[in-house]
Amino acid sequence: MLRIPIPPVVVIVSVAASLSAAGAQQPDVSLSPFVTFLPTGSAGPMAGLALSLADGPLALRASGHLSIQDRNLQGATTTAETIRPWGADADAVAYLESVSYRERVALTPYVFAGLSMSAVDSAQFRLLRQGWSYGGGAMVPLGSALGIFGEWRWRMSKFVMPDAHDAPRTTTEIRVGATFHIGHGGETGRAVPVVVSGESLTSDDGSSPSASAMRLLSTADQFVGTPYRRGGSSPSGFDASGFVRFVFGRLGVNLPRRSSDQARVGDRIRTDWHVIAPGDLLLFRDDGGINHVAIYAGGNRIIHSSETGGGVRYDDLSSPRGQWFLDHLVAARRVQPDLRGLLVDLARGYASDEANNSDGPDHAPRVSMRYRP
């Protein structure tokens, strides 16, 4: 009787469920169908599926793969044995600094290491091997929710170092596939603010916006109506990151020029609407990378400079236009002065050339020219 291998999808779901339960950070979730090849062997390709839970530059990934076709194993006799190879991996992944081209993320390299299991099933036997693997790859974004990737994996059949005296021969694999970003963990698949009518959402303890946040929002409000200008960082015209940098600069906080760099300063907070407070920065993924930033104004609104909105304006996140920003929200940061209230320079180590470090326009639904609040 033919032994049925453990379905790779079951491995993926069970491992991913444990990872999700372990993390309360509502990590980003992506699903990746792939094909893996063995360039050093004679076996044919195998198809697989991976599920990744990412929190910033780190991710946990569970995957399984199965031979596309049954294979015949010819023995010493004339009878042939039908076999079906399969395997599963659990990897820790670290994403490195992205490479940009013309203000868009061109590719993101990454490295990984993890535990693995491979098996060969037939009607007569099952051969299992456990080990570990490591490797590297690169992700190429094709949009805010889609990308392609390729990676090279070195697989060991024993828990030993590759240069150990009794180390087995390393098996190499090439994996290529597509990645679909399916949102944040949780039932909704995305962050959705729930605000009681007439109330401003601040923090878990229900406290009012801080004095510094009130000053920040008051300063930002003075420039509502300022036109959008790509590369602009002055009251004659702002792009998204130029506006945020200018407003914070008026309060003595020097931020990096680009929104992708602003996403790396201050304190990282969860994209959880019980945590996000007025004055926090909200970062949005567009054109394959973080390319837009806004300030959360409380009461379910953001203030930002938007090309599709005609300039500096408030947007209601519960509106159809606001839904676009909810769907593209990927990070939140909290920037505060030090305890002594001194000036803060967070732009050190980041490029400051305004001509080459501006953000591109957003792609939210365009606001009517006759009504731009």
Structural notes for this entry:
The longest helix has 15 residues. The chain contains five helices and 20 strands. With 373 residues, the protein is mainly beta. The protein has two domains: 177 residues, Beta Barrel (Porin); 135 residues, Alpha-Beta Complex (endopeptidase fold (from Nostoc punctiforme)).
Briefly say what this structure is.
With about 375 residues, the protein is mainly beta.
Task: Summarize the topology.
Blueprint: H1 8-22, E1 28-37, E2 46-55, E3 58-67, E4 71-74, E5 80-95, E6 99-101, E7 104-122, E8 126-141, E9 146-156, E10 171-184, H2 211-221, E11 233-234, E12 237-238, H3 240-250, E13 253-254, H4 259-262, E14 267-269, E15 281-286, E16 289-298, E17 301-306, E18 311-316, H5 320-328, E19 329-334, E20 344-345
Parallel strand pairs: 13-20
Antiparallel strand pairs: 1-2, 1-10, 2-3, 3-5, 4-5, 5-7, 6-7, 7-8, 8-9, 9-10, 11-12, 14-19, 15-16, 15-19, 16-17, 17-18
